[in-house]
Structure formats: structure tokens, C-alpha cells
Amino acid sequence: MEKNNKGNYKNQVGQSASGSIKTYKKDSEVSYALGAAPTFELLKKYPQQTRRVFVHSDWERGAASEELFRICRNLGIEPEERNKAFSVLSQKENCFVIGEFEKFYPALDPSKTHIVLVNPSNSGNLGTILRTALGFGIYDIAIIRPGVDVFDPKTVRASMGAVFSLRVKYFDSFDEYLTGSDCGMEGRSFYPFMLKATMELGSAPLAQRCSLIFGNEATGLPDSFLNVGESVIIRHSNEIDSLNLPMAVGIALYEWKRSNR
Amino acid sequence: MEKNNKGNYKNQVGQSASGSIKTYKKDSEVSYALGAAPTFELLKKYPQQTRRVFVHSDWERGAASEELFRICRNLGIEPEERNKAFSVLSQKENCFVIGEFEKFYPALDPSKTHIVLVNPSNSGNLGTILRTALGFGIYDIAIIRPGVDVFDPKTVRASMGAVFSLRVKYFDSFDEYLTGSDCGMEGRSFYPFMLKATMELGSAPLAQRCSLIFGNEATGLPDSFLNVGESVIIRHSNEIDSLNLPMAVGIALYEWKRSNR
User: Do the Cβ atoms of A132 and B254 come within 8 Å?
Assistant: First the structure.
């Protein structure tokens, strides 16, 4: 196989530009998996949604690049060596692979446990929550608007590609979630996590099929959620205002898993 | 009280420069609490270590600024309105108060439970861990070098000032921690958290006085820790490589707290 002077495999990597590359916007049709790990996840879980794959000329070629090129070949995608894509799309230095994909909009599974995020505002936090959810075997995430964009490349990256294994759906209001076909309200338990709650996490088992509900990073859930199901507090010392949001979600998931072994 | 055209209280805020302001370096004698909340924590917990307080001219004056000026006055510190400090020290836009402090080096309390971080590399993660530790009533943190700088302003900020309520101490090796007077090895239980461990978190109670030991974000703990005390795993699905570090620490602390109610 012919190598160029950087050790790259010329005949595996397209040198021609296949179209323009634009900074991600919330209303874009496509988004980007930044980095090799999330791009592999994308190709595995949503091959049909993958449009283009960009690789950086500085990417050290080896087993990982061979594997990427093999998968792309099988899908009929020609990876493009196009450094411009990285300067446009990625602020991080250690990003050498980018997967471009059409956004997807799965429905939630009403038979399963859900995480409900009411007005989450931080993309890094959302990514961490997605990764943690996948770690605890929860696949369904409802986001009540306004909420940070799950397809923001920062979220996709922070999720380490977990977003491609989950069902994430947006709702205009909690009522819309509650009364729609995604929820399966009948027989479902609801646990809003609130500092004003009276039930302490761990004092009683969490139902196997439930919705674990969390508020915004700065403001938490509105008081109206005290009337939704059984509100829960994760007890902590009064030396901090609150646990951070991903931490609260992770601890709740750990306890849910413990309750349902 | 005379106000200037921005509504600021001239006679509370020094306009003269008290000395130079330099970008933070690891070997600096001083560091910085970026933001009002961590600066209040600094002034409360380490008033004697506080050297200077900077406020931005855009800071909206009200109850918070009055309180800050009152505390500073009591300590004989004159807050300086000096926007240059913010352009030099802070990358964030929403930072209007900075507290400059001399670094401090407390010993650990050998009678208490410790968190031991072996080679932590991310300042944001360390800050989140500190905040969570304070939330679960753990005050003693050992860091095994090489490890990220706890006085990095990014860490101080991510901890939301929790660093000023904790005892954080660096050791050149785990052995140095183990055999020194900070540890109090006699009667202490050791729990290294490792993917190769056999004991699952939650399957047995954690000792009241113990050391919860965590490895580097990317590499975890070396295998040698399998011989230290009783190694523990936080069970998760094989769809993720691992929980992120602050998450693992937070879940461990939650379980420790549950074990010792």
C-alpha cells in the first residue's frame, strides 16, 4: 500500500472536499461526533445516519485507523483527510477524527425507567449524565424545554458517544411528557429530586419502572413538583448548597440499581 | 454615600493599584478565588491568608457587595476596583469578584475518613470531588503526586470554595501517605476502587474510618493496589468503559455515608 510522506494511506483517504463544513448550530440538520471513540460509536449504532467522516493528517495511523477505514469501506463512506474540518468544528487539540451525522429522533420506551431532565442548561453536564445513564442501564431520557441541545457537539463528546445508544426526546412541558405515549403513565412511579422533599434517598426502595426527575442546575425543580409522585432528597451536609446535577443523577441511578437487583 | 456615575461606592473601593497581578503559576505563593461565592468562603475560612480582593466595575452593587465590603472592612482589607485583574486572571465572563490568598498547607486528621486520589489530572474534576466530599462530610483529601494542583484557580472555582473548608495534602507516593502521621494506618480500612476488584460496592458496609482510594481519570489504579486493603468495584454495564472519576467518588461517598448512619 502506497504511503505518503506522513505515513498515511493515500488510497484510503479522500483528499477532495465533498462539500462545505459549517459551525454547528442548534437548527442544523447534521451534527458532529468529535473524536475517534464517539465516531466509532456513531458508525456502530447509526451507520445509516453517518454522512461523512473526517480524519486529521496528524492522526497517527495504526490499528484504530485501519479499523475505522475498514468500517467506513463497508458502509461505502470514504473518509476525508481534511484538516479544515477540525479548525472549524473542534476547539480541542486532541481531536483527530470527526463523524458527521444526520440527527435522529427516537421515541421513548414507555415500559422502561426514564430520566427526566427539566430545563438542563449545561452541555457538559448533559453529556456526563448520558454516559452515566448508559452505565446504569437506563436508555430513555426525557428533556423538558427549554433545555440544552443533546446534539451539541460538546454534549456528544462529553457523553463519549453514549448519545448513540440512548433514546433522548424533547417535550415542551412536563405535562406533555406525562400525558403522551412515551411516558406510559399507568403504573409508573414518579420521583422528583428536590431539596424540599421529605423522603430521603435510600430510606425506601425505588420502583423498578419509574421516572427520576431532576431540575435545572441553578434553580432545581419548581415547588409544583412536590405534588408529583413522591419527592426525594439526597441528604448532604449544609456546608454545600447542593450536589452538582450529574452527581445527583448518578447517585440516584446507583440507588435505583441497588433497589432493583 | 457618594456614588460615581456607575453607581459604585467610591469610598469603599480603592482605585489605586496595590501591586502587580500575574497569571497563576503552580509555584506561585498566592492563588485566586474567582467569583463572589468562593471569595466569601475564602474570607470566612482563611481571613488571615487573604491578601487582596478585586471587584469589577461592572459588578452590580447591592446586598452582596455591601456584605463583601463589610467583611473586608472588618479584616482591614480595602477591595480594589481593578478590571485588569479580571482580564489577567479569569477567562469566564461572569466573574466580578476575585480574592487573592496565600496558599495554605494543613495536615490531614488521622482519626477521620480520607479520600486518596492517585495522580488525578483534571482540575475541574478535582474541584467537583472537593465540593462533593464536603457535601458528604469528608474533610481530608490526600493527593499522590503527580497530581493536578489544588490551588489552580480552575480547581478552586470548580470546588465552589469547598477547598477552603477541607484539608488537602500532597504526598510523593502512596507509601509516603501510608506510613506518615497523617494517615493513622492502625485500625484504618483501605478501599481501592478498581475495575479488577471483586467486592462490589454496596455488598458489605464500608468501615467508618477508612481511606477511599481512586486512580487517574484515564488509567485507574495500578494493579499493585489489588494488594491494598479490600478492593471495590462500582458495578456498571459493559456499554461504558468506566464511570467518570467524580461520579465514582460521589457514589462511593454516598455508600460510605449510608453504611455509617
Answer: no
B48 is written with which cell numbers?
Answer: 488571615
B7: pLDDT strictly greater than 90: no
Return the pLDDT at A5. 43
A254: nearest CA in chain B?
Answer: B251
Peptide bond into B38 cis (omega under 30): no
Residue A166: closest CA among A176, A151, A180: A151
* Cell numbers at A59, concatenated: 492522526
Per the listing, cell 463572589 goes with B36
Cα B251-B252-B253 angle, rounded to 5 deg: 90
Question: Mean pLDDT, consecutive 10-residue segments, chain A of 261 residues?
Answer: 44 62 94 96 97 96 96 96 94 91 97 98 97 98 98 96 98 98 97 96 96 97 97 96 96 96 87
Tell me which residue of B44, B191, B63 sits closest to B116, measured CA to CA. B191
Alpha-carbon torsion A137, A140, A144, A145, what sign? Answer: positive
Optimal mutation site among B123, B247, B259, interface A, most CBs of chain A within 10 A: B247
Report the residue from B137, B241, B254 with minimal CB separation from A254: B254
CB contact under 8 A, A254 and B258: no
Give me the mean pLDDT over the B44-69 stretch: 96
Q: Which residues pair with B164 in a beta bridge?
A: none
Quick: pLDDT tens for A69-98.
Answer: 999 999 999 999 999 999 999 988 889 999
Checking if the pLDDT of B10 tops 70, the result is no
Grid coordinates representing A178?
406525562
Report d(CA A259, CA A261) in Å as an integer.
6
> Residue B240 and residue A131: Cβ atoms within 8 Å?
yes
Q: What distance in Å separates the CA atoms of residue B193 and residue B215, rounded to the nearest whole number?
A: 8
Task: Check: CB of residue B80 under 8 Å from CB of residue B54.
Answer: yes
The pLDDT value given to residue B17: 59
Question: With contact defined as beta carbons under 8 Å apart, do A101 and A128 qualify?
Answer: no
Distance separating alpha carbons of residues A201 and B196, to the nearest angstrom: 28
